[in-house]
Structures are given as C-alpha cells and as structure tokens.
Amino acid sequence: MGSWFHQNFVEPGKVPMLLALVSFVLTFLITRMVTRLIRAGKGPFRNVRPGGMHIHHVVPGVVLMVIGGFGAVGSDRHGVGAAVCAVIFGMGAGLVLDEFALILHLDDVYWTEQGRRSVEVVVLAAALALLVLSGFSPLGVDSLSPEERQDRVSLLLSLGLSFVFVLIALSKGKLWMGLVGTLVPPVAIVAALRLARPGSPWARRFYRRRHRARARMTLRAYHRDRRWSAPRRRVQDWIGGAPDDEPKRDATPAPPR
User: Is the pTM of this model over 0.85?
Assistant: First the structure.
C-alpha cells in the first residue's frame, strides 16, 4: 500500500491535489451538516450576523481560496507548503461552491429549488478532480504518444477537435458530458453526436425547421427526465437537504404534446 501510494501520488506530485480534493469534500459535507442543523434549530450553531448583516460562508471561502491559490502558485508541488496551501484552497472551494447558486442568481436561494445547483456543481467538481487524479489530462492530451506530443501539428489538431466536440456538447445542453469530455474526449464525442436537449442553443438554432428532430428530442428528454428526475432529487436531498419549496406531489415532468 505504501509503495502504491508513493508511486501513484508522491512521485507524480499529486499529493496536493489529493489533499485539496479531500478537504474540499469534507468541508462541503461539514458545512451542509452545520447549515441543516441551523435550519432545524438544533445544536449550538447559528448564522453569523455581525451588526445585523448575514455573512454567508462564501465570504471566508473566497478568502481561503485566494490564500491557498496564491500560496500554491509560489510553492513546490512536493513541499509541505504546497500541501498546506492545497488544504486551504480545498476548504475555500468547498465553502464557495456550496453557495454556487447564490453566486449564480445573486440571491439567497440556498434552501430553494434553485439551490440544488450548488449540490450538482460540487458533485461535478469532485468527479472532475477524481478523473485528474486518475491520470486523465484536459482534452485528452494524455492519450497522445511522445512522438505526437513533439509534433505540434498533431497536438494542435487533436486539441482543436476535442475542443470542438466539447463546445458542441455544451451547446446541446449536455453540461455534465461536455465537462467530463474535457478529460475523456470520447464522452464529448458521444454527447456531440446525440440529439440536443430542449431549449439548448443548438436546438434553437438548428432544430427550428426540423419538426421530426424536435419531436424526437422532446420525447427523449421527457423519458429521460421521468426516469432519472426522482432518483436525482433523492440523492440531492440526501446530500444537501430538501429545499423549502419542495412540492409535496410527484415532480414527474408533464408528457410532451
């Protein structure tokens, strides 16, 4: 076990990345636990209100990210300083992304339906970090041979094609697949070849006069949302807590007309 950890994390200089990921996940989970206790009126925890103004935890999160980020830039990946800065940065990122929905909407939507976006972003960020730790490089650079990396034309062409597929996937409304595709290019290719999501920029631009494609797109999105909406909500509620405006009835989307 010790030799495996040394070979896969210490030698490649991935220990700071691992520490940042662990501190990021733990900070998010602890923060959610504390906020749920505050919401329920249990425990010794209370909102921070100096002078009557509610200080959201995104504020100390930004401070920690700045300290950890600048400290990591000026540190060696194999030193103690890099490890400390990685932990500080991970803690700050956990606090900031826990209130991502607040930053996105510029409103306190923490316990509303819009607040679910924070949980989605945290899970996505943790998944991307795990992929990087597993050895994947952005836009599939790791899949190139040393000869191809020396050939600048092949390298730029591979990066360009991968980037195009990622952009198409994002324009088709497939955020998760597009972001994961930056590390695993086949995922972006699959997302780029599949039908777009309703309301996406790609659908508005290219499906306006393709009635059959629009019908297939709407029907596929309806079946997908009906299949995965309830399980996804249960997982989000288990991780971050149910929002205040959670409807009592089943939130299955209405069938397309």
Answer: no
